[in-house]
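FAQ: What does a ligand-bound record look like?

Like this one, built around zinc ion:
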Amino acid sequence: MKKTLTAICLCKGVKFKTSGEHRNVSNCHCIQCRKTHGIYGAYSNVKDKDIKFINKKTLRWFKSSNNAKRGFCNKCGASIFFKFKNSDNVSIAAGMFNGKTGLKTMRNIFVGTKSDFYKITDKLPKFKRFSN
Ligand SMILES: [Zn+2]
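The answer part, i.e. the structure of the complex:
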């Protein structure tokens, strides 16, 4: 859905506005999201061109695999972005957005690698790996 949102990390070192089409939220239970977020990652997604940075002084990127990198704040530790190499889109941890987002959680992915300390209790579609 088309909207304009503002996202900001805890220390305000990373602040940006998003516009245009926002994908609804995908909960990713892969090992890397677990290690990054402490639990699953809940990501929306927008086109690169629809992000306007207001501040990115503390934004750093970690190459988390051969085909993806993750953006985080090197001051407050916020886990903010996931980006596939060669993609024109970027995933944004949905909790970064201020105020009401109007987004909905739409699915669970990589459910085969979730940790056992929580249950997926929603009735949303579940995928073993990716889904588009
Ligand atoms: Zn920060």
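Follow-up question: can I read anything off the structure? Yes, for example: The chain has one helix and ten strands.
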